[in-house]
From TrEMBL:
It comes from Spirodela intermedia. Pfam families: Pkinase. Residues 1-248 form the Protein kinase domain. One of its GO terms (biological process) is autophagosome assembly. This is Protein kinase domain-containing protein. One of its GO terms (cellular component) is membrane. SUPFAM superfamilies: Protein kinase-like (PK-like). GO terms for molecular function: ATP binding; protein serine/threonine kinase activity.
Length: 260
């Protein structure tokens, strides 16, 4: 349905990531998500959200030109570096939270937060994290819930895997899985199928914390991961509780130089 090319944007001469979407292969729901993605990206400009530079329709396709991020994605970064130190993980969480705050203000859930969809501005120095790939995003107004299954199983909230109705807290589960993977180098739950994955979540009593408590890890970090990876969405923290959490802000003195 879509493919991404590395290209040059002729009007500006800038290197871009060019996403080609074959419109004839989209369902009505996919088309609505694409329209939501384009509308949202056109309306915002934020350092932690990938910037949309141009949209072109031609030959039954839609082409989305976005800024090119030379650092690849967060999955590449984790594969290269392994477990990431707490200070750098905090920086990425703060930047992810800053981007999600914009989505939250627009009543948008991303629906597919995972390391592959978090891009890094550069491959050295102090890369800036940018949220990308809004192809499964949708608007959910306060008090609403939906039941469409989307996302990637290792980062998918349990209520979605159970085909239950869900709200914006599915993104908070994904954030927790990403934080765990940053600190450990692998996702918190794995399974050969969604059924096995769900069983592993259920039998773990929330999280295998013995693997998370690394030497010197701040208690606030463990607390945040616990609260994000609550199996029951009623008990899971909201976006605002996540973004105001002590792990992101009380330890600001430990943040790497150049963060911002």
């Amino acid at each position: 349905m879509s493919v991404v090319w590395r290209a040059v944007h002729a009007p500006s001469g800038r290197e871009v990531a060019l996403k080609q979407v074959r419109l004839g292969e989209l369902t009505a729901g996919m088309r609505a998500s694409l329209d939501c993605e384009v509308s949202f990206l056109r309306s915002v400009r934020h350092p932690n959200i990938v910037r949309l530079l141009d949209v072109v329709r031609a030959d039954g396709c839609m082409f989305l030109a976005t800024e090119f991020c030379a650092g690849g994605n967060l999955a590449d970064y984790i594969r290269q570096h392994g477990a990431i130190c707490e200070q750098v993980s905090r920086k990425f969480m703060r930047q992810l939270g800053a981007g999600l705050e914009v989505l939250h203000a627009h009543h948008i859930i991303h629906g597919d937060l995972k390391p592959e969809n978090l891009l890094l501005s550069s491959d050295g120095g102090d890369p800036v994290l940018k949220i990308a790939d809004f192809g499964l995003s949708r608007v959910i107004l306060p008090g609403q819930s939906v039941d469409k299954v989307c996302g990637s199983p290792p980062y998918m909230a349990p209520e979605m895997m159970r085909f239950q109705r869900y709200d914006e807290k599915i993104d908070m589960w994904s954030v927790g899985a990403i934080l765990f993977e940053l600190l450990n180098g692998y996702p918190p739950f794995r399974g050969r199928s969604n059924v096995q994955l769900l069983e592993n979540i259920k039998t773990s009593a929330g999280l295998p914390f013995s693997r998370l408590v690394l030497p010197g890890l701040h208690p606030d970090c463990v607390d945040l991961c616990r609260k994000l990876l609550c199996e029951n969405p009623v008990d899971r923290i909201s976006f605002r509780e996540f973004y105001n959490h002590g792990f992101l802000w009380k330890c600001e003195r430990d943040a790497p130089e150049g963060e911002g």
